[in-house]
Design a protein that fits this description.
CATH topology of the largest domain: Purple Acid Phosphatase, chain A, domain 2
Helix content: 25-40%
Order of helices and strands: EEEHEHEHHEEEHHEEEEEEEEEHEHEHHH
GO molecular function: 3'-5' exonuclease activity; endonuclease activity
Radius of gyration: 23 Å
Number of strands: 19
Shape: globular
Protein name: Nuclease SbcCD subunit D
CATH architecture of the largest domain: 4-Layer Sandwich
Distance between the termini: 39 Å
Strand content: 15-25%
Pfam family, one: SbcD_C
CATH class of the largest domain: Alpha Beta
Keywords: DNA recombination, DNA replication, Endonuclease, Exonuclease, Hydrolase, Nuclease
Family: Belongs to the SbcD family.
Strand order of the largest sheet: 6-5-4-1-15-16
C-alpha cells in the first residue's frame, strides 16, 4: 500500500504578518497532484490542520476544497487533530464525511478503533491518536499521572489490544501528534510541556509497522518506522535550512517500509543575515538573498535611525528586525532578552526566585512552579477548545 504522510498544514497562519493563504493553496494543489501522479492509496494527515481553534473562513474554505478534491480522486484520507486544532470543531460531521472516504479521528476514545483499508495483500489498520492533552484525557485513559508518556502509552495499549484480534498479516499504521524523543524542534511549534517534560520515547510505538508523526516542523526520521513529515511551509526563520517535504511510504505485504521524500513548493526562500547596518547594506555577498524573506540582526552598538526603511531598499522582503548590539562579555548592558534566550518559563521563574532571595527554589518549590505553569497552560487549552 502506498501512503502519503503529511502534517502541520497550519491553514490560516501568516508569516510575520504576510498571508500564506496563496502558498497554502499551492501546497494543496501540489498534494492533490502527487496523490494522482504517484498513484497514492491513502493520505495520512498527522494533525495541526488549522493554525488555531477558530480558523478564518478562508482557511476553512481551503480545507473544504482539499477534502472535496481528494474525495473526487477516490483516495481515502485519515486525519487527526493536533494541539493547534479544536478537536470538536474539526471532528464535526466525521461520521458523514467518513462515507466519502475522509476519516477524521479527533476523539481520544476512538484511539483503539481503526480505519481499515485493504490492498491486494490484505488489510491495513490505521489508528488515529489525536493530540492528547494529559490533564484533559487522564480520566479517559485512567492514568494516575497525567503526562504525555503515560497517556500515549495508554492509548497505544488500546491500539495493541485491537491489533491482537485482527487477522494474521494485518498491517498497522499509527497517526500521532506528539513530541517524540530525538526529534529536533524549531521556533514555530507551540510548547506542550507538562511537568517540565514534553517528549515521549519512540519505544511507546513499538510493534507498529509505520508511525506517521505530526507536531515538529522539520522532516525527520527517528527510526525507519517512526517519522515526522514536517510542515509543508516554513513558519519561522529557524526553518531556513529545512527541506519541506512529504513522505511517500510504500508499505510492503510483510510490513516492510520504503520511504521517499516528495518536495513541497517553496513560495520564497528564507535568509537570516547579521551585522552592522552599514555592512549589510554594502556586502556584495548578500546579493543572493535580496529576493528572500529576510530576518536581519543588527549588531550596531547604537540603534541606527529607521533601520527597516534602509534595509527594505536593498532587501524588499525584509520581515523581521532583531537588535543585538555588540557588547563585551561582562558589559552590564547585555540585553535582558539575550540573558533569557533559550530558557524556559520555569527556568526564568526559578532565576527570579534566586535573584529575590539569594537562593534558588528547592525541589518542593520547583514542583509548585511546574504545577502552576501546567495549570495556566491547561486553562488556556480549555478556553481555546471552548471557544
Amino acid at each position: 500500500m502506498r501512503l502519503l504522510h503529511t502534517s502541520d498544514w497550519h491553514l490560516g497562519r501568516a508569516f510575520h504578518r504576510v498571508s500564506l493563504l496563496d502558498a497554502q493553496a499551492a501546497f494543496i494543489d501540489h498534494l492533490v497532484a502527487v496523490v494522482r501522479e504517484q498513484r497514492v492509496d491513502a493520505v495520512a494527515v498527522a494533525g495541526d490542520v488549522y493554525d488555531r481553534a477558530v480558523p478564518p473562513l478562508s482557511a476553512v474554505e481551503l480545507f473544504d476544497d482539499a477534502l472535496h478534491r481528494l474525495a473526487d480522486l477516490g483516495v481515502p484520507v485519515v486525519m487527526i487533530s493536533g494541539n493547534h486544532d479544536s478537536a470538536r470543531r474539526l471532528g464535526v460531521g466525521a461520521g458523514l464525511i467518513g462515507r466519502a472516504g475522509i476519516h477524521l479521528r479527533t476523539a481520544p476514545a476512538e484511539c483503539g478503533t481503526p480505519v481499515v483499508l485493504s490492498d491486494e495483500h490484505g488489510d491495513v489498520a490505521f489508528y488515529g491518536l489525536p493530540y492528547l492533552e494529559p490533564a484533559l484525557v487522564k480520566d479517559e485513559f485512567k492514568v494516575d499521572k497525567p503526562a504525555h508518556e503515560t497517556v500515549l502509552a495508554a492509548a497505544m495499549d488500546r491500539v495493541r489490544e485491537d491489533m491482537s484480534v485482527r487477522g494474521e498479516g494485518t498491517r498497522s499504521v499509527v497517526l500521532a501528534h506528539a513530541f517524540v524523543t530525538g526529534g529536533e524542534p524549531s521556533d514555530s511549534e507551540r510548547d506542550i510541556t507538562v511537568g517540565g517534560v514534553q517528549s515521549v520515547p519512540a519505544g511507546v510505538f513499538d510493534g507498529v509497522d509505520y508511525v506517521a508523526l505530526g507536531h515538529l516542523h522539520g522532516c525527520q526520521t527517528l527510526t525507519e518506522r517512526v517519522r515526522y513529515s514536517g510542515s509543508p511551509l516554513a513558519y519561522s526563520f529557524s526553518e531556513q535550512h529545512h527541506r519541506k517535504t512529504m513522505w511517500l511510504i510504500d508499505l510492503g505485504p510483510d510490513g516492510a517500509v520504503e520511504a521517499e521524500r516528495i518536495d513541497c513548493p517553496v513560495p520564497r526562500p528564507l535568509a537570516r543575515i547579521e551585522g552592522r547596518l552599514e555592512e549589510l547594506l554594502a556586502d556584495p555577498g548578500l546579493d543572493r538573498v535580496t529576493e528572500h524573506w529576510v530576518e536581519a540582526t543588527l549588531t550596531d552598538p547604537v540603534r541606527p535611525a529607521e533601520p527597516m526603511a534602509q534595509l527594505a531598499e536593498r532587501f524588499p522582503h525584509v520581515l523581521n528586525l532583531v537588535f543585538a548590539p555588540e557588547r563585551a562579555p561582562g558589559d552590564p548592558q547585555v540585553s535582558y532578552a539575550q540573558r533569557l534566550k533559550d530558557r524556559s518559563d520555569e527556568e526564568v521563574a526559578e532565576d527570579f526566585v534566586a535573584h529575590v532571595r539569594g537562593t534558588g527554589p528547592d525541589g518542593a518549590e520547583q514542583a509548585v512552579l511546574r504545577a502552576a505553569f501546567d495549570a495556566v497552560r491547561v486553562d488556556d487549552t480549555v478556553r481555546e477548545v471552548a471557544r
